[in-house]
Design a protein that fits this description.
The structure is a homodimer. Chain A is α/β, with parallel strands linked by helices and about 350 residues long. In chain A, about 35% of the residues lie in helices and about 15% in strands.
């Protein structure tokens, strides 16, 4: 604590990302990265854009990338906002659409960055407890609120909310913005993009980090009504006119455009997930129904924290949250078949001993 | 205006960056970009880092880049913070060190992003009017305040404040943070870095956009006491754990390390500036004493706005600010010798007619 810190800095509780250790080689199943490399077109585009034009500022409007995303989602460029990872887009959305005076709502078990943003921007929130099966009891979002936000699929539970439920949430919140964080939507959930034309209160946030294997490039985006996108632009232009560098703009556009590669790697991740789920079930684990690139698992006999430690000793990183209700679960990212077999073998050994 | 916008978004007045038109080829002297390409080592490092590791998140600590910057400035890594351009670092600093309740101070003529941040974060400010020669009357910073911020050299005036004056500002503000925005320091001013050990209230902010020819890569940094750097980290980790992508981290570290190239291109820019100043003086312009990579000029006979328009018609972009006190000035970036000769020739023609 420093006497020079603002009241805000004294108050906030920063987010702690999954560890990225450099002390030895690990099998990394802790930050939901994609096991497959990005599209070769993206890598090629990045190399091509590494030239003397780097002396010039990037396009502040990010037109080419927004056009590529719009085209990929059947929208217009004016319905697309891009930013430095979906985390930055989420932060901007909290500033743009949530007010200090009005309480927002999100699930009690969800992406742990939401309460961090709320504390940073001094926005009150109430938690909507998941039901005993870890489903979102979405009727809870119908009560008066200053905004709604939840991931679909939810994280770290991996469970999805069907479109019919989402439409009811939109219908019951005509005066507040409903943010659907679709970071993991590409792995089996149904996107809410089709609702954008009908519901001006809907903002969808996505990322290229997971399904496009570009966690290292920092590109996220939002889809929604023009007025919401304009609100995000006003915030961005009050913080940093150029949040995406020339290289990221070029690489992201190329990745989005390479739809075949995306479909192929996504299918591989889903296939591996189904295989892993089956094996885990046979080993006695409970596995929540996952539509994400990770699974959320618990074992009736061995505490999750112990499993976490024993896996780490064997060079395998998974994510453990020491939080109420989920402190006996592990979140395990879906890696390559090879990595997942190592993980399953290690689990098998740990359970036996 | 949308009913979904927060009070904040309704209130803010976003920054307007210099235009980046794509309708035709311009000689761009409007955004203080460097006319020379970035270090070949930086381009090489970027190409080398465009590989399958992009599927992984970047190092959230940015250790290698911070180490390179620390080494280049005779500091320790713990005294260095890095971010997505100096604009992002400035925004984080406003959150980290300035409070709603206490009025901060900055010059009336200065970087126009400061009042934008202040409005966004609801921080009161008072303006310190520059003297008639556009110097900062720095004793004005000695009065009770909640923080001080100014660029050195100042923008768009290009004038520098000597170190002796800066030390007095630091001494007279033991309880508030003094932010010195050194975006242009490499072009002839003296850095305040040497004060960091003695003054825990000093935060210096720099960018690779200008002197390292990397406007397109979006890398800025802050130098200061560990406690201030920790404050910035707390803010960053409450917004976006990874603001610099893998490519930017690699390219920036390589650029910082290539000190010879930096010294060479910097010397070229300064040489061209001195040449341009001499020519402008001969043409009857008043030119403020510049220690930046731009000059701030006015002509006794022809209004700046008219010059701006006539230059634009000739395919030459400079920056004109329609603001009190400086609405008869132009800010002109120092380009290549060739570009500056085109600019001088065009000015000559305009003045004659």
């Amino acid at each position: 604590m420093s006497k020079y810190w603002s009241e805000t800095v004294k108050r906030i509780e920063p987010y702690v990302p999954g560890e990225q250790p450099r002390d030895r080689k690990y099998i990394k199943l802790n930050t939901n990265e994609n096991p497959y490399p990005p599209s070769p077109n993206a890598i090629e585009a990045i190399k091509r854009s590494a030239d003397e034009t780097l002396r010039l500022y990037p396009d502040p409007e990010c037109d080419d990338l927004r056009e590529a995303i719009a085209c990929d989602n059947g929208l217009r460029k004016e319905q697309v906002f891009v930013g430095n990872g979906s985390d930055e887009v989420l932060a901007f959305a909290f500033i743009a659409f949530f007010d200090r005076g009005r309480e927002i709502v999100f699930p009690d078990i969800t992406y742990t960055f939401y309460p961090v943003y709320a504390k940073l921007f001094n926005i009150k929130y109430r938690l909507l407890p998941l039901d005993p099966e870890f489903n979102i009891p979405y009727e809870g979002f119908f009560r008066e609120n200053g905004g709604v936000i939840f991931p679909n699929p939810n994280a770290p539970t991996s469970k999805v909310l069907p479109l019919a439920a989402i439409e009811k949430v939109l219908q019951n919140n005509p005066d507040s913005v409903v943010i659907i964080d679709e970071a993991y939507i590409d792995f089996g959930g149904e996107t809410s993009t089709g609702f954008i034309g009908r519901y001006p209160n809907l903002l969808i946030i996505r990322t290229l980090s997971k399904s496009h294997s570009l966690a290292g490039l920092r590109v996220g985006f939002a889809l929604g009504n023009e007025e919401l996108i304009e609100g995000l632009n006003r915030v961005k232009n009050s913080i940093n006119s150029y949040t995406l560098d020339r290289i990221a703009l070029a690489g992201a556009a190329a990745a989005i455009t390479d739809r075949d590669y995306f479909l192929e790697t996504r299918a591989k991740v889903i296939r591996t997930r189904e295989y892993v789920v089956e094996k885990l079930n046979r080993m006695g684990f409970s596995v929540l129904d996952s539509k994400a690139n990770f699974v959320f698992i618990t074992h009736p006999g061995i505490p999750a924290e112990l499993l976490f430690k024993k896996l780490r000793e064997r060079g395998i990183l998974v994510r453990y949250f020491a939080k109420p209700r989920i402190d006996n679960y592990l979140r395990v990212s879906i890696g390559s078949d090879e990595d997942m077999n190592c993980f399953l073998d290690a689990l098998g050994e740990i359970i036996k001993t």
